Amino acid sequence: MSATTFTAADAPFVDTGNTAWVLAAAALVLFMTPGLALFYGGMVRTKSVLNMMMMSFIAMGTVGTVWVLWGYSETFGPDAGGGLVGNPFTHFGLSGVLDQIYGYVPANAATGTAASGGIPGAAFVAFQVVFAIIAVALVSGAIADRAKFTTWTVFTVVWATLVYFPAAHWVFAFSGYAAETGGWIANKAQGLLFGGAGAYDFAGGTAIHINAGAAGLALALVLGKRIGFKKDPMRPHNLTLVMIGAGILWFGWFGFNAGSALGAGTQAAGVWVNTLGATCTAMLGWLVVEKFRDGHATSLGAASGVVAGLVAITPACATVSPIGALIVGLAAGVGCAYAVGLKFRFGFDDSLDVVGVHLVGGLIGTILIGFLATKGSPTGTAGLAVNEGLFYGGGASQLWAQLEGALSVMVFSFVVTYLIGLVLHKTMGFRVSAEDETQGVDLAQHAETAYDLMPLGGRIGASAHTTPSATKATETTGANA
Amino acid sequence: MSATTFTAADAPFVDTGNTAWVLAAAALVLFMTPGLALFYGGMVRTKSVLNMMMMSFIAMGTVGTVWVLWGYSETFGPDAGGGLVGNPFTHFGLSGVLDQIYGYVPANAATGTAASGGIPGAAFVAFQVVFAIIAVALVSGAIADRAKFTTWTVFTVVWATLVYFPAAHWVFAFSGYAAETGGWIANKAQGLLFGGAGAYDFAGGTAIHINAGAAGLALALVLGKRIGFKKDPMRPHNLTLVMIGAGILWFGWFGFNAGSALGAGTQAAGVWVNTLGATCTAMLGWLVVEKFRDGHATSLGAASGVVAGLVAITPACATVSPIGALIVGLAAGVGCAYAVGLKFRFGFDDSLDVVGVHLVGGLIGTILIGFLATKGSPTGTAGLAVNEGLFYGGGASQLWAQLEGALSVMVFSFVVTYLIGLVLHKTMGFRVSAEDETQGVDLAQHAETAYDLMPLGGRIGASAHTTPSATKATETTGANA
Amino acid sequence: MSATTFTAADAPFVDTGNTAWVLAAAALVLFMTPGLALFYGGMVRTKSVLNMMMMSFIAMGTVGTVWVLWGYSETFGPDAGGGLVGNPFTHFGLSGVLDQIYGYVPANAATGTAASGGIPGAAFVAFQVVFAIIAVALVSGAIADRAKFTTWTVFTVVWATLVYFPAAHWVFAFSGYAAETGGWIANKAQGLLFGGAGAYDFAGGTAIHINAGAAGLALALVLGKRIGFKKDPMRPHNLTLVMIGAGILWFGWFGFNAGSALGAGTQAAGVWVNTLGATCTAMLGWLVVEKFRDGHATSLGAASGVVAGLVAITPACATVSPIGALIVGLAAGVGCAYAVGLKFRFGFDDSLDVVGVHLVGGLIGTILIGFLATKGSPTGTAGLAVNEGLFYGGGASQLWAQLEGALSVMVFSFVVTYLIGLVLHKTMGFRVSAEDETQGVDLAQHAETAYDLMPLGGRIGASAHTTPSATKATETTGANA
Amino acid sequence: MKLITAIIKPHQLDEVKEALEAFGVAGMTISEASGYGRQRGHSEVYRGAEYTVDFVPKVRLEVLVDDVDASDVIEVILKAAQTGRIGDGKIWAVPVDDVVRVRTGERGADAL
Amino acid sequence: MKLITAIIKPHQLDEVKEALEAFGVAGMTISEASGYGRQRGHSEVYRGAEYTVDFVPKVRLEVLVDDVDASDVIEVILKAAQTGRIGDGKIWAVPVDDVVRVRTGERGADAL
Amino acid sequence: MKLITAIIKPHQLDEVKEALEAFGVAGMTISEASGYGRQRGHSEVYRGAEYTVDFVPKVRLEVLVDDVDASDVIEVILKAAQTGRIGDGKIWAVPVDDVVRVRTGERGADAL
Ligand SMILES: Nc1ncnc2c1ncn2[C@@H]1O[C@H](COP(=O)(O)OP(=O)(O)O)[C@@H](O)[C@H]1O
Ligand SMILES: Nc1ncnc2c1ncn2[C@@H]1O[C@H](COP(=O)(O)OP(=O)(O)O)[C@@H](O)[C@H]1O
Ligand SMILES: Nc1ncnc2c1ncn2[C@@H]1O[C@H](COP(=O)(O)OP(=O)(O)O)[C@@H](O)[C@H]1O
């Protein structure tokens, strides 16, 4: 039971229930990046699992820091013009944000509706930073086994600043929520390409997945194929890690999608259900393809199907019905199961299928909204307006808007990422030496090996020099190939 | 601070705090199934860990899908007669659910109590589907190492439809919550067997654990013993996975139990505390038995004790006091530590002790309510009525009700599951060939191996054909035994 | 939308939003201890991973049980005198707690502020017990590979009772929250040492981390160095476990810190953001030290930096600004990266760096508050009073208070723990035999081995006797060294 | 003295061990190996990419025996390891100059 | 008959295997090994403490061959395994008294 | 030339390696093995079911030496590996026809 006075002139106030959910959701999404580290880490070979995980972890470190400094402001600060980017200086260091309340709806005497509370500015900051982190981390899957760690670290900062924050501004910065004017895709897209409505992307199909997928493709092209691509067996070294990772991702994704309602009400609950439904059918879809094409339904397929479904429902979760969600999931499961083969056909080494799962899955979800958007969705049943899709008699206008949003992010991301990657590659070098790659990036880049499982502990024949080395560790691996 | 107008004639409204907790709890329970996959997966041999995990994952896929289609409606739709099953068509595809509000309590001018908000229909859908999923997944522990994956997949759908949804309707469908009339155990049980009150089962000791345990026993009998049962060493291949799994289960179980309050108040908080207390003493109980019986307290024992305690407190968490919870846990820890030996005595191969832990633990918890129910419990301290148990002077009536609830679910589940299992076994075949079993179900059923930890990555002597195979993968394992 | 009547004389009521967050936060913190088990478990050698994990798990069992019995009362019961300890009998078995409401703020007609709801007593019990558990579990890192499990089990009970509960009473028992009078550090510290204000310790930098760190040092001295310390390679046997553990700890820590607001409002949200920021810069700080000192940034360094940052921001998260949090994190990352070398210099075998990370990190965070406390912090922006630090013109008084709090807990913990350890060592023995240590504590203390990953499952040449042994298991390892 | 080495199927190890014990052999050393021969490996499929594992898991068994026992021990292993299916493995004997028991320094037959 | 044992770099295994097949060798047995010699190991650093791993991963290859083929087989392995860099490994030959195929009991050259 | 093979306790490896280095042996190859003999294995208990692991972890060490060094090397290993407790292991020597260094193709003593 909660009880308070109400006066029509009530100041904006915080709704503890909405805030509780947003804080929990932010923690859930934060947890997704370690989950991704496991998901990706399990898929590479033993000799590069640590490097794979480190690419996600370092993204947490750099993007989190940069977010506090200028990232939040660049994304949600007042629009610097044309809906293209926020002003990175307005809220530098989060100044002027912590005491704000966002999303407060004042009472409306005319309709007789009561005021509804908002969430603290910091809760919004918290929820959005974890999106930025995982978007960056996702890209790393495309360049497994061969990236220079220092260059990747620099890349995370540059890419977040030049690609992610602008794209997130386009899609997530709704005018009047955090700042008065926001991004061009979120708000009526002014018909740049096809004219018409703004695109629906509830939780980041465009800004996160299409974005990361296109960026992954660009980096895979810049770095080139792994030694032995298409020839050597590069099977996952630890599928239990992949499964744990998929489980954590699924768990955290409820924060990602249902948290995007920025409150705990009818819309959030419906989104939760849609998120589950799509994931289930995507898993089934992927496994059925495998069973019929390859003869066996695999655990890697199940884990991949889960992620594909989650990716596809991300933009769509609030605007399709539960049945619509089952369809989105199924389409993504089947579609992505085939799409992961593209890299072999076209010969780009997107090692862990960022393109096949995130770009393709993101496109499927974003575009299907144009067909499946309905008033029977979480948004509609919560009493909010929904522009219905083609299958519900809403015409093609929403479909065009979806295509516009999806393609503009895709092209922008691919082009800018390719340039960033190229510059870094030419200056710092983005790829380890062939010898380091063969021997393994873990040892070469981190001077570590992931496992030492010999029964009696301690690798046989190793010795310790436990005085912290004052000098740089020298690798003595001369001819160890 | 939350603030709104209040009028006596207020329409049902959503309480964001309650909703926040139910959505978080639903996510927590969803996470339990991957946790279970790890818990089970760690206990089998290396050669079948993926198959073990896949049985849980596929249950997520199928049951989640079926829930949206007809499962919710079959469980919580209007009772089709006798409190035995809901109407599966009323809410097919969740139609008519997303805009509902459940659990709203109108203001009462007489007592002066204010209205209290409900939760969105979709939040209830979300919370209940994850119960259905894990109930099905639990069963798989009984048939480790030897089940045909396709048959198990079919089983999950059939069992959910014929066994779980009806049982959940009996226990969880309270008249007037989602539908006007619900199940027979939840509502006054009309004294079918012993007469008297309705049984208490707060979070599913009967519908989930006794149900899954009895079903596990039935399937273990249908499939028969593993090759080498009682003779070969079948020790857990990775106890760190078992411990991670137990940790995730414990974590998620707070959603399971405290979430079953369907709101965030005094009852939920008390349930949280009881859930912890029982788990602690169950772990201690199991370890003390081991220490005295076998000479060593083991990590598998700790993990098993945790699960046994959680199982036993599930039905009882709302109606016993914190001290009562310690007793329930201790009884379960000690009882289950002995019960897992039953399978060797009676010679049924319930591989991962679904009977010893879930059936026995569920019975202990459900029956102890008859002794320990008290007004000093979370339900009582929240101001709700509690029919006290034998030790608190409440007489034996509640005990009879508990026995009635427990035994009816057990018998129903065992009989129907045995029949389902038998039909599937005779038609599709439920067990892999002896050769596949010896070689390992992972390779035979999924064409995968879980680990490849050789220092240089990639199993020595393997070669890749990375063109996606258009034809079915042929296993060339001819004589590999 | 939430709605209720309001009368000035309203009885204390529960705010469901605050309660939802506290329950979720308590679950998050509970999850940290299994996370810690993985983090620690991955760092030891294969032969002692289970024992390492068991030390955390058993702490959950014993401390959870003891908490319900007398621990809560000893910590939050009415002060027994001098702010030193609560009365353990008042709420024995949690009697008289479940129906309480804590933190309710009545309406204030003068200022026109509405009443704001509290949380159920049991929610507070839940949130605090998980702190007690992890504080105890943290200590175990100092005595990896060599502790007798039974003695450790006894230690957890004794240490919780004699060290943790009192220290938690000092720091967390605010007068008027649960009991009328609480602990001396939380409430104005009466200037015992340096005079002046009460120390700020929002989420337990002193009571948890300095406390556990000092206790770890004491136990490391009592038990002595591992065989082969400084000579044998004792590198982490499974860094993927360490990374999972760090991920879980990070995730759970949002409950730890933001949950300490005991509600879901502006303060909690700001704390969330600060917790993230500090962790990010701490990771970066540690990795930069490694890169320049050792030549490589390692995954163990990333995981360690994460934990160091979380430790340091724990006391400070509510009273520093986001920029302040970045500074606290950076200081902790750099400081702890160097501090873990102390044990080699001074020759104490604090095996997993409880001192270097928790004691040093806790000190850094607690003391920096004296410099960085500001009204631009979560506490300040939530409208609560903040005594500003040296850098913000607040003078040195807060710094002295911080030093007083930090040092008094450190000295108290070290001395009492050393005595407890010594008594246990002389009576029960705290260390396994040299032979058991060489062979591995897992086998010696738990009769288990963590992994059995041979391709065909089941260790070659093992045989099973599956009749539960009625007699004590005899180890036949005679001369197996 | 002879060193008898046998490459056998992992599942036959228990039988071989018991047969050797019954025959009176007091000790042996085993290790994991992978074999290549007539017996084929298996295929695995990951995201549609197929891998062929050419080598098959085997156990490598070494027994030091007196010259006189050599052919009997070979016979004992042969019988216990045989399943009649492809991949049953090989046994071979190599002459040994000298054997020492580390614990005692005993040499030759005494060292077995 | 001879037993040819070769310690080689793991990455050369595929080439050696193919060369042996091409030469007509029908079977072989491999196992994991760690080598110590001129080639140095590597260092790892954990929380500032440095570990030196002295041993280098190697593959141990065993091939039973007829006396006449022995030197040819050595030559084949030598060529396929050679990278010219330190640590390429060793090959040696040991005389074998007898070889048995477990499946059939065949002896000598027939057993290969 | 001779091939000296030693089965030793894993914890003695470091000492043996150092002793061999001190004696002047330039290289060696080791692998993991499991031994069966007088030394007994251990028991493990899982949910009340007891497993006996009969085999004990050992290290298998191989050193190629010149004929003249063979008995000295055996002596060196013997001393370094001896703890005097059951399970210390075995050392044996086998005649070797030929040794080749893969990197250079050198043969015989030069290849060591
Ligand atoms: N020439 C050889 N040298 C060494 N080991 C061999 C040789 N031929 C076969 N083996 C080993 O014997 C095993 C069985 O051989 P295979 O040809 O598959 O079956 P079979 O001996 O029944 O005809 C192989 O896996 C391999 O380990
Ligand atoms: N005397 C020896 N006995 C057994 N194995 C040896 C011997 N010397 C070298 N080896 C093996 O050969 C490998 C390569 O030897 P190394 O001295 O590093 O290079 P190279 O042979 O090219 O000079 C070693 O790693 C070891 O496995
Ligand atoms: N006949 C044998 N053939 C091969 N290896 C043996 C033989 N006997 C013993 N071993 C190896 O030597 C190890 C030690 O032997 P064991 O009998 O336990 O002790 P000890 O040699 O001290 O009497 C065994 O674990 C095994 O690896």
TrEMBL record, chains A, B, C:
> Does the keyword Transmembrane helix belong to this entry?
yes
> Sorted alphabetically, which SUPFAM superfamilies does this protein's record hold?
Ammonium transporter (SSF111352)
Question: Which ranges carry the Ammonium transporter AmtB-like domain?
Answer: 20-451
Task: Give GO MF terms, alphabetically.
Answer: ammonium channel activity
The yes or no answer to whether the keyword Membrane is present is yes
**Which InterPro entries does UniProt cross-reference here?**
Ammonium/urea_transptr, Ammonium_transpt, Ammonium_transpt_CS, NH4_transpt_AmtB-like_dom
Residues crossing the lipid bilayer are 20-40, 52-70, 122-144, 151-172, 202-224, 236-256, 268-289, 296-316, 322-342, 354-373, 405-424
Pfam name, any one: Ammonium_transp
Which NCBIfam families has this protein been placed in? amt
Return the protein name.
Ammonium transporter
TrEMBL record, chains D, E, F:
Coiled-coil ranges from the UniProt annotation: none
Q: What is this protein called?
A: Nitrogen regulatory protein P-II
PANTHER family membership: NITROGEN REGULATORY PROTEIN P-II, NITROGEN REGULATORY PROTEIN P-II HOMOLOG
InterPro entries for this protein: N-reg_PII (IPR002187), N-reg_PII-like_a/b (IPR011322), N-reg_PII/ATP_PRibTrfase_C (IPR015867), N-reg_PII_urydylation_site (IPR002332)
Which source organism does the UniProt entry give?
Intrasporangium oryzae NRRL B-24470
Molecular function (Gene Ontology), one example: enzyme regulator activity
Xref: PROSITE patterns? PII_GLNB_DOM, PII_GLNB_UMP
Q: How does it assemble?
A: Homotrimer.
Matching entries from SMART domains are given as:
P-II
Q: Which domain of life is it from?
A: Bacteria
Gene Ontology process terms (BP): regulation of nitrogen utilization
